Amino acid sequence: MSRTTVSNNSRDGSAGSGGQNNDIYNYVVLIVDIVVLVIKFWVSIVEEFVKLFVARAEANVSGQFVLITGAGHGMGKEMALQYASLGAKVICWDVNEQTNTQTVKEIKQAGGTAFGYVCNVVKREDVMELAAKVRKDHGFINILVNNAGIMPCHTLLEHTEQETRLMYDINVLGNLWMLQAFLPEMIERNEGSIVALSSCAGLFGLPNLVPYCGTKFAVRGYMSSLAEELRLKNPQTNIKLTTIYPYMIDTGLCKNPRFRFPSLLKLVASKDAAASIILAQRQGLEEASVPRHFLYVEKAGRIIPKKAMRLVNDFLDTYVDTDKK
Ligand SMILES: NC(=O)c1ccc[n+]([C@@H]2O[C@H](COP(=O)([O-])OP(=O)(O)OC[C@H]3O[C@@H](n4cnc5c(N)ncnc54)[C@H](O)[C@@H]3O)[C@@H](O)[C@H]2O)c1
Ligand SMILES: *[C@@H]1O[C@H](CO)[C@@H](O)[C@H](O)[C@H]1NC(C)=O
């Protein structure tokens, strides 16, 4: 702010007296800025590097409210059970009443606290209405997990209009409606955690998943943009954003995985995936893959020319086959 003012002054002042003094002043400010930037830049790189090797503190979620969409099945269900066993109070949302109720029942049987609500995240009005009800019933939601998603798997030309639209509605727009419902209170209190399920299909393209990859790149994109928006609005923001990139998880969503080297890359059990996601959230990581090392390999792979990477991909021959026939 002050820098902008100074440069404006100098522009105004250059016509009259004192312009030269302002110029010198501006150079000094610029040089100081550059020096500070270079120092902070390298300090933060060293800090982040060191953090890779030391255990990070894990936030205490006991007594906190966690809202999970798609809590009736798969990773959503596992996360609900595990958050509850950590002492969190879990608000389960799913479009499927029966499976959602089952999750709530299992949590209660294990001595945990859970509340179930039927919600189709596609319908913005329903999301807003239910969010208001949940806030009234329970108060502030500390942790929001945007998990509900679908994955039709076949070539682009085989995708119907209806399933394509539905996929974008659930995997992308539904997430945004949830944010618009729960973010205002997080901003007001300057606290809270948001977790979003992207995918390895949000890191690189995969055959049979053309529209799905679009939705998962979108998740990565909106989370990354939101982080910047929150940070620029409030440099001291305490709202933590965590984007998750699972590889293939054993939930049934990924119907026909193909592996050449199953011992190297295999289906991860949904229990293990859920534990890994919760850990990433509690550690306040901005990004995490499941398995954890995958993201580093992928980042390194990005600097390698595409042609060379494709040779490696063909060698690994690890894809998802069509769900048709
Ligand atoms: N399973 C994997 O291999 C894998 C890999 C990468 C990313 N993911 C992502 O992780 C998330 C969870 O995947 P999963 O495998 O546990 O899925 P799943 O199919 O096991 O469970 C998804 C749950 O979401 C619910 N749901 C679907 N549409 C909904 C809607 N409109 N409103 C509310 N709830 C709805 C379903 O009823 C179901 O209970 C998804 O976003 C998925 O894209 C999964
Ligand atoms: C976690 O928070 C709960 C509730 O606020 C508190 O009772 C508990 O002692 C805390 N646990 C730790 C390990 O700090």
Write the layout of secondary structure elements.
Layout: H1 2-13, H2 19-51, E1 65-69, H3 74-85, E2 89-94, H4 97-109, E3 113-118, H5 124-138, E4 143-146, H6 161-189, E5 193-197, H7 210-233, E6 240-246, E7 249-250, E8 257-258, E9 268-269, H8 270-282, E10 287-290, H9 294-301, H10 306-316, E11 319-320
Parallel strand pairs: 1-2, 1-4, 2-3, 4-5, 5-6, 6-10, 7-9
Antiparallel strand pairs: 8-11
- What is the overall silhouette? globular
Strand order of the largest sheet: 3-2-1-4-5-6-10
Written as H for each helix and E for each strand, in order along the chain, the element string is HHEHEHEHEHEHEEEEHEHHE
Strand content: 5-15%
CATH-defined architecture of the largest domain: 3-Layer(aba) Sandwich
Structure summary:
The chain crosses the membrane at residues 24-43. It is found in: Membrane. This protein is α/β, with parallel strands linked by helices and 325 residues long.
Structural overview:
- It is a single chain.
- By secondary structure, the protein is an alpha/beta fold.
- The protein folds into two domains: 52 residues; 256 residues, NAD(P)-binding Rossmann-like Domain (Rossmann fold), CATH 3.40.50.720.
- Helices cover 52% and strands 14% of the residues.
- It is built from ten helices and eleven strands.
- The strands form three sheets. Strands 3-2-1-4-5-6-10 form a seven-stranded parallel beta sheet, sandwiched between helices. Strands 7-9 form a two-stranded parallel sheet. Strands 8-11 form a two-stranded antiparallel sheet.
- Strand 1, helix 3 and strand 2 form a beta-alpha-beta unit.
- Helix 5 runs parallel beside helix 6.
- The longest helix has 33 residues.
- The radius of gyration is 23 Å and the shape is globular.
- The N and C termini lie far apart (61 Å).
- The site of nicotinamide-adenine-dinucleotide has 31 residues, from helix 3 and helix 6.
- Pfam families: adh_short (PF00106).
- It is a multi-pass membrane protein.
